[in-house]
Specification:
Its main location: nucleus. With 118 residues, the protein is mainly alpha-helical. The chain contains six helices and no strands.
Length: 118
């Protein structure tokens, strides 16, 4: 983004690097970290071998704020939101916040106005 343009998430002006980035919802990160934790535990013969505090805190955070626990539900949410040609940023914000109405979704992510039928 040039220095003259100001970032504005409401208008989806968030910079090319963010528009092209793959974003993950909290529930997706939770599944990934759970799987990694299982791998680490399976590889370790030493029960005192623990994951880092950052890993543990990150896992706690995404578990706390994940609405979807079931891997199939997580896939369905991404698939459903992907049908509306949302930017990754928009998709993940909506997937994390779970608005109940289109109006609520637009209030949270103004850049989606016109992408959903009200």
């Amino acid at each position: 983004m040039s220095g003259e343009e100001e970032e504005n998430a409401a208008e989806l002006k968030i910079g090319d690097e963010f528009l092209k980035a793959k974003c993950l919802m909290n529930c997706e990160v939770s599944l990934i970290l759970d799987h990694k934790l299982e791998q680490l535990q399976a590889m370790s013969d030493d029960p005192s071998n623990q994951v880092s505090q950052v890993f543990e805190k990150s896992l706690q955070y995404v578990k706390r704020f994940s609405r979807y626990k079931n891997p199939d539900a997580v896939r369905q949410v991404r698939e459903l939101l992907s049908r509306h040609q949302l930017a990754e940023f928009e998709l993940c914000v909506l997937g994390n916040l779970c608005p109940e109405t289109v109006e609520e979704a637009i209030a949270m992510v103004p850049s989606i106005k016109g992408k959903f039928h009200q």
